[in-house]
Design goal:
Blueprint lengths: L5 E2 L10 E3 L9 E5 L1 H7 L6 H8 L13 E3 L3 E3 L2 E3 L9 E6 L6 E7 L14 E2 H16 L6 E12 L8 E10 L5 H9 L3 H15 L9 H23 L1 E2 L21 E2 L23 H16 L5 H8 L2 H17 L6 H18 L3 H7 L7 H5 L4 H5 L4 H7 L25 H14 L3 H16 L5
Antiparallel strand pairs: 1-7, 2-4, 3-10, 5-6, 7-8, 8-11, 9-11, 10-11, 12-13
The structure holds adenosine monophosphate and magnesium ion.
């Protein structure tokens, strides 16, 4: 195991970027989830359960890291309206460390740790169900190959919360997530809005130094940064589509400048392909529907580009911004083929293949995840697919064109078809009724067995897809 390499680098930005805050004093701390793999990865695998509660329930600083939690300042567009009243209202940056793998900075950020100057009318808390849902989302997404924050710790905190969208009083929790950066598009927006160009430049330098060090020598750092962010965000959009995932709240304050997916509220996975599928009940117009996510990400990146104008020029920023669609068009087939364990061919052929694939999924209404599961390895899985509950769809004439195109594709290295996961009839999914089924016994009788068994099935899936920390 590597050594834990603590950091407090966020302080370098200066006090104009955050407020020192304290965690709530919770009446109880009960450990509900610890991510041991990522703990090992960052060198914290040796912490006992008691130490885990001390740091991620009572927020005693990790030695060498930040001496006080920092509530981060940011603004953002929420459902396309600008809101200058945001910021960490129920969370803070608790600690930082260096990722032993690539030297980038990693943040431990909380959700539900108490009130801050940005709480507005809110209680600063997270419901236990909200915490459980975030753990399930991140575990699934990681296993499906989506670049996501990790749910490092979930601790039940013994309070009663009142929410309009959950039976109340609801149980409370605090989540610590691990993510490369909590700098959001909204962090840049706030400084642009305040016309604080000095700090805007400081933030850009900080992001380059800690997350994009390869850009340090760029002639136009702002344009180079925009292009790099656009590339990562476009890749994330393609990964969500390939995973059948709807984030639900793609406000600019929920978009990380590393292109790492985070902040899981009303998320859902798709049962069947449906571009209009919407996750949040309050998203009445379907603004953040499944098929609109790439467009939304591009819209959000345009907001980032606007913020960078004082540090660059429109002539340089425009071409950097315009890389988002070519990257997305290249990434979408790549991510879809990756899920199928197939080797890409050329971009034209791959695009024709995924057009046929979406055509089939749309016409047949075959289950989304089942399709990827059944056709892992392409034609190699023909016999396995014939035994699938979806076999009738594959015997239909509508499947022939896709089957024909699929024959040209070679399996990727290490597709792992002999893994026990692929001996199942149906893949592990996390559709809304399955989430509710995991939650029900916890709510009724504090029975966590379905939660634990869901996590071990997801671990098996992650292993089958060979996803490593
Ligand atoms: P979100 O929709 O979770 O990204 O949150 C948007 C904004 O509302 C952020 O500034 C949050 O910190 C704040 N917020 C959300 N829920 C609460 C809460 N229960 N208490 C205080 N602030 C909250
Ligand atoms: Mg948020």
């Amino acid at each position: 195991m590597p050594d834990f390499r603590p950091s407090r680098r966020h302080e370098d930005l200066g006090s104009a970027f955050y407020d020192r805050v304290a965690a709530a004093d919770f009446p109880q701390t009960i450990l509900r989830h610890r991510d041991n793999r990522w703990a090992e990865h960052v060198g914290l695998g040796g912490l006992s359960d008691a130490q885990w509660l001390t740091h991620f329930g009572h927020f005693e600083p990790l030695p060498g890291s930040l001496p006080h939690p920092l509530a981060l300042r940011y603004h953002g567009h929420q459902f396309r309206s600008y809101n200058p009243d945001l910021g960490d209202g129920r969370g803070f940056l608790f600690a930082q460390c260096t990722d032993p793998e690539d030297g980038r900075l990693l943040d431990f950020g909380t959700k539900g740790s108490g009130k801050t100057p940005y709480s507005r009318g809110g209680d600063g808390r997270l419901t236990l169900k909200g915490g459980v849902r975030e753990v399930l989302a991140t575990e699934m997404l990681e296993a499906l190959g989506v670049y996501t924050s990790k749910s490092f710790a979930l601790i039940e905190t013994g309070e009663q919360l009142y929410r309009g969208d959950e039976p109340s009083p609801a149980r409370s929790s605090v989540l610590t997530r691990l993510s490369h950066s909590h700098v959001r598009i909204g962090t840049f927006q706030r400084l642009a809005y305040l016309e604080d160009h000095e700090n805007l430049g400081r933030l850009l330098d900080f992001c380059i130094a800690n997350y994009y060090p390869q850009l340090a020598g760029a002639e136009d750092k702002a344009a180079a940064f925009l292009e790099a962010v656009a590339g990562n965000v476009a890749r994330l959009g393609a990964q969500w589509i390939a995973a059948g995932f709807v984030h639900g709240v793609l406000n600019t304050d929920n978009i990380n400048i590393t292109g790492e997916s985070f902040d899981y509220g009303p998320w859902r996975f798709l049962p069947q392909y449906d571009p209009g599928f919407t996750a949040a009940y309050f998203d009445e117009t379907g603004l953040y529907a499944f098929g609109r996510q790439p467009d939304t990400l591009a819209w959000n990146l345009t907001r980032l580009a606007e913020c960078l104008v004082p540090l660059s020029s429109i002539e340089n920023l425009e071409p950097a911004l315009n890389t988002v669609w070519p990257v997305f068009r290249e990434q979408l087939p790549r991510q879809m083929l990756r899920r199928l364990g197939l080797r890409p061919r050329d971009i034209e052929e791959d695009s024709a293949f995924i057009t046929a694939l979406f055509g089939f999924l749309s016409a047949s209404k075959a289950r989304y995840e089942q399709f990827f599961f059944d056709w892992r390895g392409g034609a190699l899985s023909t016999e396995r697919a014939a035994r699938s509950p979806a076999a009738d769809h594959y015997a239909d004439d509508a499947f022939r064109p896709l089957a024909g195109l699929m024959k040209a594709y070679e399996p990727a290295d290490a597709i792992n078809l002999d893994h026990p996961y692929f001996a199942r009839q149906v893949p592990r999914t996390m559709l809304i009724d399955e989430v509710e089924a995991v939650w029900a016994p916890i709510a009724e009788r504090d029975d966590w067995t379905l939660f634990e068994s869901a996590l071990s099935e997801i671990a098996q899936m992650r292993d089958a897809y060979r996803i490593r920390p």
